[in-house]
Amino acid sequence: METSSEFPVPGTQQVPSRATGNAPEEDDGGDGKGSMDGDGMGGNPYAGLVALLRAAWLSGKTRPMEYRVAQLEALGRFLEDKKQEILEATALDVGKPPFEAQLAEILLCKNELHAALNNLSQWMKDEPVERNLATHLDSAFIRKEPYGVVLIMGPWCCPVSLLLGPLIGAIAAGNCAVLKPSEMTKNVEKLMVEALPGYLDTDCFAVVTAGPQETTRLLENKFDYIFFTGSPPMGRAVMAAAAQHLTPVTLELGGKNPCYVSEPCDVRSVARRVAWGRFFNAGQTCVAPDYVLCSLELQEKLLPALREAITEFYGSDPRGSPDLGRIVDQKEFQRIRMLLRSGRVAIGGQAEEEERYIAPTVLADVLPSDPIMQEEIFGPILPIVVVASMEEAIEFINKRPRPLAVYAFCSDCKVVAQVLERTSSGGFCGNDTLTHMTLSSLPFGGIGCSGLGKYHGKFTFDTFSHQRGCLHRSMGLEALNALRYPPYSQQKLGFLTATFEIKRKGTCTLL
User: Fold this and answer.
1) Is residue 369 classed as helix, strand or coil in its secondary structure?
2) From-to residues of CATH 3.40.605.10 in the chain
């Protein structure tokens, strides 16, 4: 999803810079079996905080629906009360325009929040399941239980919504949570640490700050679930740390999202939709179209249409536009500027280091071997790779790691359907970009290198809920149970088979 400072492997020690709440310094690692520190001697700086949250969870405090609703409503008040501070913090950190911040940071969060509040009572209900003849008089159901103490690690690209969105599901599911905002967005991090605890129950929810070294120490603690959004290399490190405790994880990563464009199509509409998706948040979104695949003829039609769209969106000098963000830091700026050497700069290409400004840029005639095709761009650059046909485009996509999203544009719905049918990705959007992730009714997440697990709406609630299979039998009718007890006989086996067996329903085969 995004690049950042990678934290080292577990074992390196560093004290945390800041954490909410007053936690004792000594603890057994949160699982009652002794510390799992890298040095094996205890003293993990986050262990006391995790222990406090675990004690609150074990008390049952977070389980009643009334408590969950109260905490969700408090989070809603935070979004409302701190709206201006959120806009200012995201503007300072990444130059995010207020329009984009309200849409991607606040509105998406509120939608998730309201979906949870509107449906929580239904989501929490036990789910009855089918029973066989042997259990026909019993109660069989799925109980949705909280995991316990969860860790949510947010990214810098959408530092509010991609931190609080998972939190909404964690609260709705009845968990306690530790939140770690990205250290790269200092102003949002500060806002979360200083303001959020004033709204949530600090016995059950905490915000910590952690750089690469501190994150290693944080991950040494036993959590019951870890939700991470960030880059694939860091996702691997999180998964490795989670494996030490056999902790389940959701990894929201990213990748190079292909965008296939085919005739017939409305070239101007395609250009506007692709440009918006690529340059939103200065290209720093995990679902941005990473590159375009099209024919040489269509490339020549797209280039003037893209130039027109960029001018329409940002004016003749995008540097002066209030609607174009900036690159998050100097390291990212230098990395992205190096990628401008790929292919041919057809539109844009200007860069200004002091402002961390890179113009909306389109690169034509890009080769698969060019540097820009070797990594996720995560910046305002759109490369175009020429392919001869849809077959070649699909082959190109399928030879590479499965992306977070695949986009396909064509007025012929059969072409779009073919791309959907013959490729694999976390999500898919036909004839548009980004908008599929705005639906809380759709699962959002990656596959393979682009991620593990899914969320949004009820899917977030399910992610943070353990699906506990339950059977409640009567103490009566013991004579029926005698069929399963020794001494065994063929007659008993026959009776048991008749009551437990699932038979295949009749099928009709057409020859």
Assistant:
1) coil
2) 18-36+44-253+458-465
36: which 2 tokens?
Answer: 């799992």
Please say whether the beta carbons of 86 and 101 come within 8 A: yes
By the 8 A CB rule, do 153 and 230 touch?
yes
Please tell me the predicted confidence (pLDDT) of residue 1. 60
| Summary mean pLDDT of the chain | 91
102: DSSP letter:
I
CATH number of 258-445: 3.40.309.10
**Among 3.10.25.10, 3.40.605.10, 3.20.20.140, 1.10.10.10, what is the CATH number of 18-36+44-253+458-465?**
3.40.605.10
Distance of CA 378 to the CA centre of its chain: 16
What are the angstrom distances between the C-alpha of 184 and each of 208, 230, 322, 362, 458?
Answer: 14, 12, 22, 27, 30
> pLDDT-based confidence at 318, cuts 50/70/90?
very high
CA distances from 442 to 114, 135, 460 (A): 16, 35, 11
Ramachandran sector of residue 383 (left: φ over 0; alpha: ψ -120 to 50; beta: rest): beta
**206-215 per-position pLDDT tens digit:** 999 999 999 9
The pLDDT assigned to 10 comes to: 41
**DSSP code of residue 334:** H
Select from 178, 158, 125, 69 the least CA-distant residue to 444.
158
pTM exceeding 0.85: yes
Q: Is the pLDDT of residue 94 over 80?
A: yes
Asked if 1 and 286 count as a contact pair (C-beta separation under 8 A), the reply is yes
**Length of the chain counted residue by residue:** 511
Helix and strand numbers (H, E) in the chain are 17, 19
DSSP state for residue 479 in the 8-state scheme: H
Beta strand 291-294 with 451-452 is unpaired
Give per-residue pLDDT as tens, 397-410.
999 999 999 999 99
Active site residues: 252, 286
141: enclosing H helix or E strand: strand 139-146
